Amino acid sequence: MLPFELLKEAPPRAGFFEADRYEAVRRHLPEDLRVAVAFAYTYGWRMRSEVLTLERRHVDLRAGTVRLDPGSTKNSEGRIVYLTPELKTLLAEQLDRVHRLGRRLGRVVPYVFPNLSGRHAGRRRSDFRKAWATACRKAGCPGMLKHDFRRTAVRNLETAGVPRSVAMKITGHKTESVYRRYAIVSDADLQEAVRRLTGITTGITARSDVAPAP
């Protein structure tokens, strides 16, 4: 039997959004899609299968929560997140847009992110590839993926010091090994680490240079 080599696993994609790039792309999207990407950027939910599938019944503005039903996620577990003040405002505005759309169409629109115009008005958005590609091109960062928000959210949660067990509940990662693959470290992170180390080591050196009192 001839020996054979196993194919090497491709390295995980390392794309993520710095805050300025995120804002630049977001500015070039329609109002409703700005809400969708803000949600994905904050919580790391999958755009097509978790954000765009949200229904109005999943949003409780009074409690300030958004939930996913058990069985509707990739790991089959339900999920709940508490909204930031910004996202609570954005979702309230989006639900008002949906309410006005329903009045115009003469029927209840159950989705949080339906098509707001055209022949598919009132139907749930399944994706927004063309709008996304255009926004990325205008923002000067073509080739970015909507899934990069998932890596970005993990990185932001890690930077903010959110306990990993809590962060995994927010993003929906079932195993820590997969979660760690999304914890991207950027050059800016490495530079910040050096700045922090410089402050610590400088303080230690200064204290050691002080001669002890007789």
Task: Throw out a few tags for this protein.
214 residues; 9 helices; globular; three-stranded antiparallel β-sheet
Blueprint of the fold:
Elements (H helix, E strand, L loop, with lengths): L18 H9 L3 H13 L3 H5 L7 E2 L4 E4 L10 E4 L2 H21 L23 H11 L8 H12 L4 H8 L4 H7 L4 H23 L5
Antiparallel strand pairs: 1-2, 2-3
Number of domains: 1
Shape: globular
Instruction: Determine and state the CATH class.
Output: Mainly Alpha
Q: Percent of residues in beta strands?
A: under 5%
Mean pLDDT: 83
Rounded radius of gyration (Å): 22 Å
Give the helix/strand class: mainly alpha
CATH architecture: Orthogonal Bundle
Can you describe this structure?
This protein has 214 residues and is mainly alpha-helical. The protein has one domain (19-197): hpI Integrase, Chain A, CATH 1.10.443.10. Helix content is 51%, strand content 5%. The protein contains nine helices and three strands; from the N terminus they run H-H-H-E-E-E-H-H-H-H-H-H. It has a three-stranded antiparallel β-sheet with strand order 1-2-3, with no helix packed on it.
At a glance:
With 214 residues, the protein is mostly helical. The protein contains 9 helices and 3 strands, in the order αααβββαααααα.
